[in-house]
Amino acid sequence: MNNTRKSGQEPATARDVRSVVILGATGSIGRSTAEIISGSAGAFRVEAVAGGSNPLALAKLARTLGAKFAALADPSGYAELKESLSGSGIKAAAGDAAVVEAALRPADIVMGAIAGTAGVAPTFAALSAGRTVALANKECLVCAGAPFMRQAAAAGTRLLPVDSEHNAIFQAMGDANLDTIEMITLTASGGPFRTWTSEAIAKATPEQALNHPNWSMGPKITVDSAGLMNKGLEVIEAHYLFGVDAARLDIIVHAQSVVHGLVAFTDGSVTAGLAAPDMKVPIAHCLSYPERSTTAARRLDLTATGQLTFERPDFERFPALRVALDALRTGRGLPTVLNAANEIAVAAFLNRLISFHDIARMVEEACNAALADGTAHEPETVADALAMDHAVRERARSVLRQRAACA
Ligand code: NAD
Ligand code: MG
């Protein structure tokens, strides 16, 4: 890997060009990644793109970026993808194996930006092949954190955090010894329901949950953010990524989303990562790491922001946060259970099958059920984690079917 150019705007020489695979290219993070690459004056070359179920959007992106390979997870979109790429020289493929093939194409860096647990297998494949992975997909670490971190160490590669809080913390930590870190704090915007009563939150509609005040993101993470489950997933992500236990991970609500993460050291010093709330900032940081590039990402203007406010999270109004932190503290595979049940619950909420309030309740019930029947255990491998994930989903779906039958 060589990316020693002084400025992102100077023309790149062939030797400098960094090759990239984008998994989840048509999503929010994927499109922002594409924008950074398109504006980089040739600092990056896109080897492959992968998407879920939109062949036209994927083909368009593949052409714009000059990718060599485009993989769509949904096999039913193959004919349309192939047709849309005809004459371009870009190879089209579809199905889960094609997404893994995209992940394994030769590249300096793989952007892991698939939404949800669908990202686990392809991202793990890239990591196992020794690729540097820029990780947006937090579900990878919540579902299978220990196997991911072990594999990264075994393959001698790095997971670079794209999630804004983790990226800020990564930058604020520098090369500090873990023993000198007293507390790592992730900030939370508080989402659209920050000032709402419990009663109002319980009855929130998908439209209200999808109306995030600071960030424009995919639907799953936006709903996760509204109930603060996202922050719970992020604390679990931070636990694995930085190797610190739950007692040294804190959360504060900071409505302006300017300070993304803080690191407090044993001597009383605190370093923090600040930036405008624009995912292009951490994406660009990861793509060029350990160098820096010049981007058109939003700039931070503290005087325009005026006031920065900080408050404690309210576990009563946002029970999902408590459920997630309990899962981390209990361990025994509960983060894997939590992640799987949450994905089913969020989809059910978006399909108007359950209320907003039911999301945290369903997830907590799934964790309790897995503890009660002894199926919860620390997954040893990614395959083990995915098998647990599958079983939890099946059970959650059957709970939903029973509810529908009783309604
Ligand atoms: P999104 O829903 O906008 O995009 C998801 C992408 O994944 C799409 O391209 C979709 O087609 C693709 N996809 C779905 N299933 C797939 C499969 N089986 N194979 C290949 N591609 C598949 O989601 P997003 O907001 O971009 O989030 C992506 C990930 O990044 C999530 O894990 C999220 O938690 C994380 N993240 C997002 C943000 C953000 O600002 N959007 C911030 C931090 C972390
Ligand atoms: Mg985040």
Please give a structural write-up:
With 407 residues, the chain is an alpha/beta fold. It has a domain at 14-162: 3-Layer(aba) Sandwich (Rossmann fold). It is 46% helix and 14% strand. The chain has 17 helices and eleven strands. It has helices at residues 28-38, 55-65, 78-84, 96-104, 120-128, 139-155, 164-173, 198-202, 206-209, 219-226, 229-242, 280-288, 302-305, 319-330, 334-350, 356-372, 382-406; strands at 18-23, 44-51, 69-72, 91-94, 109-112, 132-135, 159-161, 181-188, 249-253, 259-265, 270-274. The protein is globular, with a radius of gyration of 21 Å. 49% of the residues are buried. Mean pLDDT is 95; it is low at 1-8.
Question: How would you briefly describe this protein structure?
Answer:
This protein is an alpha/beta fold and 407 residues long. The chain has 17 helices and eleven strands. Helix content is 46%, strand content 14%.
Give the beta-strand count. Answer: 11
Average residue-wise pLDDT: 95
User: Structural class of the helix and strand makeup?
Assistant: alpha/beta
CATH class of the domain at 14-162: Alpha Beta
Rg estimate, integer Å: 21 Å
What fold name stands as the CATH topology of the domain at 14-162? Rossmann fold
Q: Identify the overall geometry.
A: globular
The largest sheet has its strands arranged as 4-3-2-1-5-6-7
Q: What sequence of helices (H) and strands (E) makes up the elements?
A: EHEHEHEHEHEHEHEHHHHEEEHHHHHH
What portion of residues is helical?
40-55%
Report the major sheet: 7 strands, parallel
- Distance from N terminus to C terminus (CA atoms, Å) equals 58 Å
Ligands in the structure?
A: nicotinamide-adenine-dinucleotide, magnesium ion
CATH architecture level-2 label of the domain at 14-162: 3-Layer(aba) Sandwich
CATH superfamily of the domain at 14-162: NAD(P)-binding Rossmann-like Domain
Total helices: the number is 17
- Unreliable runs: 1-8
